[in-house]
Every structure is written in C-alpha cells, then in structure tokens.
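JOB MANIFEST
job_type = single_chain_structure
chain_count = 1
residues = 736
[input]
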Amino acid sequence: MEENQNNNQQNETIDIKKFVIKMLANWYWFALSLLITLCVAYVINRYTDPVYKQSAIVMVQDKDNTLSGGVEGILEEQGILRRTRKKVVENEIGVLSSYTLVKKAITELPDFNISYFSMGRIRTVERYKSCPFEVIIDTNRLNTSSHPVNVRILSDKEYLLEVNENMNVKKKMKFGEWFTNNKFTFCINLTKPFFNNDADFSYQYFFIINDINQLTNTYKGKLSLNTTDKKSTLIEVATQGLVPQKEVDFINKLLEVYIRSGLEEKNTIALNTIKFIDEQLMDITDSLEINETKLKDFRQTNKLIDITKEGSFLYEKIDNVQSEKSKLTIKSKYFDYLKKYIIEGKDIKDVMVPSVIDINDPMLIKLLSDLNVLYTEKSSYSFASNSKNPAIEMVNYKIENIRKSLLENINNLIQATQISVKDVDSRIALVEAEIEKLPGTEKELINIKRKYNLNDQIYTYLLTKRAESGIAKASNVPDNKVIDNALFENSVQVSPKRSLNYTIAILLGLLIPIIIIIVVDFFNDKILDRNDVESTTKIPILGSIGHNNKNLDFVVFQKPKSSIAESFRTLRTNLQYLHVDEKLKTHVISITSTVSGEGKTFCALNLASIFALSGKKTLILGLDLRKPKLHKDFGIDNSIGVSTYLIGNDVIDNIIVSTAQENLSIVPSGPIPPNPAELLESERMHNLMEELKLRYDIIIIDTPPVAIVTDGLLISKYTDTNIFVIRQNYSNKSVL
C-alpha cells in the first residue's frame, strides 16, 4: 500500500528539468507562435481606430459648509461630525451626467448636428471640422437621421450624390444647389479651394444627420465622472472618442452649460423679485401720473401754491400714516403671491425672499429655507434615481409637511396684516375728520397732494428695492468653477495600447505552445523516457538503445564503433549479471514486445551480433511464425525453417544457415503455417531446443508480439531470460 502511494507521489512530481528540455525541443513551435501573435498585434495596432481620452477638472463648492477647514477636519477625524461633502459631490456628478444638461450642451454645438466621414481602403475616418464641404439642412422640412448620404467631389462646381438603401438616388449636383425629396432637404457648399492634387478631394465621403436624442444618450453613456481624491470636491470630467477635438469641444461646452445653469439658478430669485416689483410699478405708475396731473391742474386753476401751517401739519400726519399703509399693502400682496406659489405646488426655490420687502418674520424665513433645502435635495436625487426611490418618497413627505406649516404661517401673517391695515385705516379716518374742518380749497389740495405723495413714496420704495435686487443679481457668482478645461494637446490615446498589445502577443506566443504541449503530453499515453517505466514496474531495465538514424538494420556488425553498437555492448554486459549464481551452458534469450514495429527483431539481430563478436557461438532463432521478418534482414531464403522442421519435412542441419559474421548462425521461421501455436507446443519443438542448446552458447529467439498472440508465452518455458522491448514515443503505457 505504501509503495503504491510512493509511486503515485513520484508520478505527480513535476520534473522541471524534463519540462524545460521538452520546451526547448519544441522551440520551432514557440518561434512560429510568436511570429503569428506579433503579426496579429501589429495589424491591430496599425489598423484599429485609435481612441483618445479627454478630461477636464471642475471644483464643486460645498455651499452648506460653514466650518473652517481645520476645525472640520478635526471633527471628521474624531467621527463627531459627518459632513455632506461626499453627498454634495455625488449630487453634482448626477447633475453633470443628466440627460437634460448633456442634451443642452450638444444642442449648443452646431458641428454635432451632422457627422462627416471619409472612406479609405481600410479605415473610415470621421472628419470633424476638417471636411472640405459643409451640408446645410432645411430645418423646416423632414430630414432622415442616421442615414448615410455618399458624396464624391468631381470638381469645384459639381459633386456626385448617392443615397442607397431603398432610395436609389445617384445624380450629379452643383455646389449650392438644393436637393429635395421625401427624405431629405439640403444643399452642399465647398469650404476649401478645390485642387486636383489635394488628397482631401480624392476621398469618397458620406455624411449622417444625427438624431439629437440618440447622440445625447451616446455621450451620456460614455461620460466618466470621478473625484480626484476622497477628501476633495474636484471632479474629473472625461470622455473617450475617435476624434480628440470633438471630445474637447463637448467637455468644454458641457462645463460651460453646467456653470451657466448654476448661475442662472442662483439668479432666479433675483429675477423673480424684479419681475414682482415691475408688476407693482406698472400699477403705481399710472396712478402717480394721474395724481401728478390733477395736482398741477388744481394749482393752476385755483392759483394756490401751498397750504397753511395747520394744513401742512395735518398733511404730514396723514402722509406718514398713509406710507405705513402702503408698506402693509405691499406685504399683503407678497403674502398672496407666496400663498399662490404654495397652493399651486411650484418649486419654492424660485420665489422672492421676504427680506426684500422688509418682511423679517423668523418662522416664515426658516420654513422657506427648509423647504428650499428639501427641493434642492429632491432635485439632486431625481438625477440619479426614479420617483419610487425611498429617499425621494421621504423628501416628498417632508416637503408636504413643511408646505402645510408654511400655509398656516402665511394665513396667520395675512390676518395680522389685515388687523394692522384696519388700525391704519382708523387713524387715517381721524386725520381726515380734522382735514374736513379746513377750507374747501385747501382741503381738496391736501387730498390731491396726499394721493400724489403716497404713490410717489411707493414708487420710490419699489425702485429702491428693484435696484437692490439688480445689485444682488449682478453680484452673484457661480458656486462651481472650472479648474482645467479640456485641451487637444492633453489628449491621451487609450486604445489601441501598442506596448500592452505587443506584451500580450509575446505572452500568448509563449503561453499557447506551452499549453498545447502540456495538453498533448497529458493525453499522450506513450512511453517517453525511463521514468515512465521505472515509476510503473519494478522489473529492471537492462539497457537503452539510441535511435537508429542509419539506413542499416545490422548496425553492430556493419558499424561496430557506433554509439548503437556500444549500447548493445552495455546490454550484453548487463545480461551477464542476471544469472551470476547459475552456471548456464547455453543462455537462451527471448526478445518480444507488445505490438509489431517496436524493434524486437532489430534488437534480436544486433544483440546476437554483439555476442558473436565476443566469441560466443550464437544462434538467432526466428520463432515469429506469423509475420516472419528475420530472413529479409539477412537476405536468405525462407522456404525452409522452423515451420518445415516442426512438421517433419526438414532436419536441424538443413534449417541452420551460417551468416557473414563469424560465430553467428540463423534459423529462419520458414513458411507461415496455419497452426503456429500448436506447432510451438509440439514435441519436435522441445527436441529442437534441446539440440540447439547442445550446439550453441547463446540462443536469441525472435518471438511474435505478446499482446497480439500467445506464441510468446508458449516459448517462454524454453528461455532463461525474457527481454521485453519498449520503443520510445511508440509503445503504450498500458503495456506496463
């Protein structure tokens, strides 16, 4: 049991030296494999369209971060404060990669509407901003997108137009001439002077009218957005494409639209404020002009320049109260404006802030601020997820609660304002009662002047607030800024990677032959070396005979100093140790193998020859009665031999044939009998062996293969030594 385990362990051990030698022996396969893989790598590098990467850096500001960098860093390291930097960056990444923003950027790039291509012998190249002609399409008519239109320039005035795929259009057209059918309406103009020797005019061109939605999805899909560092708010905006300048233009336009959108969003409040004030100014301007005209006409008619001292006092008093009422009126209008926004469910981030018209209610300001934050958070989520996202549902729930609280607060403020207006009205009524005691002309002048000054004060107040809003709008700066724009000079080729392709080719060129050799070796059940024999059987190996590369079978006799002859001398020596304790007068040796072709006859012939050279009387006995070959090697007649002796037709002396080598004789097999096995078991076979032992010192028996017939086993009872021949890379391991 232990011995079997030891044998299995030996079989499983990898012989590194043997492996290396085997690889070196198949060097030509490695050379061929390397040649093929390197050629494939060259073709890929040479003819694959190169892909370039363009990138830009944009910095995102954390608008909610009010702590200084040092304090924030300490709190983050201690785990006390969880900043929203990562969330802010992820939200901005969602905005940058949104369909809306990408589409807006592409729409603002007119060169993206049509793609131009030139066709070479192998590659088709996009000619972005380098095509010698331009296509002008009629946007008021139908133009089929994603359909190639072929153009070949014939001269400075004409070109050949071809539209295939069920349209079958092929006609000469003049530059500047409009082409119209049910699929296209366009004209083509040359943008470059025509020269016959200019390569640009020798190409076959085609152009494609792009579908904006499809193009947007394409660029949205290949847009790559990553932070440059975990702790920073810098975002790398990158794309990959076949035309570097096209990618540069897209990235820069995308960042331009992104920065502009952010600034426009910040200006929305100021713009809404100005719009609200302009609406109020339109109403007040008419009243102001009317009262100004009345005041002027009254003074001219009544020759009254000013009012008395008592009238001035009452005028000033009612003017102050009326000014207070006008501010309350504006506040009331703002509350109605705000309430309408809330009820209609509009985005509150666009509403005018209450502080603009001196409304400083802390609860209202806080609710508006919280609602604005929630709308911003919802907008950020919507870029990266759908409406059923639990986070969006939670934000919607919070928005609804704050909207209810805000409506309640606005209603309370409206009621409080109405109470204040009633109080002001009562005070106005008291002053007006005192004015009634004045003379009629003065009383009428005060009323006209009061209305004029009231409108004038409101008008001045609104103009002041409008100017403040304009200043606020002008002072707005983008929260985010571009650190590095995409540049054509900074483009990086990402495919094909030439060095990597050649490296992979070399690795594959080495690996493929190794794998093939290992697989072939794994499934190869042939005996390759001594280890295959020694690891399987304990039967001793008598010797190894090298490959016979000479066109000779009788090598020992004809080339006695060859390496093969030396191998047989070693075999002869080793055979002497097998019966060291036995005194054999005649040593009978049988040589057999599993199947024919393994070299048993060759070994029998040369082993007999080497014994004969040592002075031993040697006989080669051909007992392969089924497929005799021995007589051919000696060039003798096979009409008589062992088979004729065994059937009684010949005597021993007739079948023994002397050879050209001294001390070497041969008994051929004779004609092939129908019953060789029965003849070998006969009494005459026994007598033959006994007689031959008396005459010779060494008898070498050439037997048939033991795996095919049983003749070899029948002969074994006459032999002292049985030699089993195994041929390298020919004999099967199963024979052992």
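[summary]
The longest helix spans residues 244-302.
Residues 268-479 form one domain.
exit_status = 0
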